Amino acid sequence: MTADDSYGRLDDDDYPAYTMGRAAEMLNTTQGFLRAIGEARLITPLRSAGGHRRYSRYQLRIAARARELVDQGTPIDAACRIVILEDQLEQAQRINTEHHKATEPGSTTTAA
To answer: Which residues form the HTH merR-type domain (predicted)?
Structure first.
């Protein structure tokens, strides 16, 4: 691995760069909260060689949204389901937009 490869990870939203302690600190929450949203299958942290949980920036954004909902009084299981549905909706809207762009008259991209 070259130095360029290592630095490229800094821009990778899915690279598991944060330990559980650091993630909890960044989100101003507890490690127990991170475990709970993991148990609810909202996020699945990767494990280091030593078995420690590691979180990506994308997972931290998802966890932060769940935390917002819980802070507003939403039960954790419901908050996790809401975040999952929001994420699915965003993905569907992105795919729909790409499809419309690809099928517009004069588009140089062909539909799959």
So the answer is: 17-85
User: How much is the pLDDT for 16?
Assistant: 87
Residue 35 maps to which CATH number?
1.10.1660.10
- For 8-52, what is each residue's pLDDT tens digit? 666 788 898 899 999 999 999 999 999 999 999 999 999 988 999
* CA atoms of 38 and 81, how far apart (whole Å): 12
b/e map of 47-68 (b: 16 or more CB within 10 Å)? eeeeeebbbbbebbebbebbbe
Which residue segment(s) compose the domain that 64 sits in? 9-103
